[in-house]
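Re-run with default settings, no changes from the original entry. Doing this only to confirm the output is reproducible before filing.
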Amino acid sequence: MSDNRDWQADMTREEILAMEPGWRMDVEIAQIMGWEGEADERPAYSTDISAAWELLENLEKEVTVKRYEAMAGFRYWCRITGNDPERFDETIAHGRTAAEAICKAALLTVMDKEAEA
């Protein structure tokens, strides 16, 4: 993922987990991806699985995405695991779609990384 130092985690973990897919989530992801194009050309990371997969390709971490059956139908979770085998370092987020779960997990991972810095 781009090492974009301009992105600041101005949201709490709870706000990220409660965020709905759409414009705001896409803006946050675009910032951490280092997007420099026009706003109307920005990928719809939170609703387009191919754009969300591009995000996964840029992570330098192990990523697992699973689909599971819940009482309200199928849902998805994404787990992003850190690279240090000596440290328990993973982030998990759920969503109604795989793209939503991927974006939330990525935002939480970057937020945690910023907090450590």
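The chain has four helices and three strands. Residues 54 and 92 are 19 Å apart (CA to CA).
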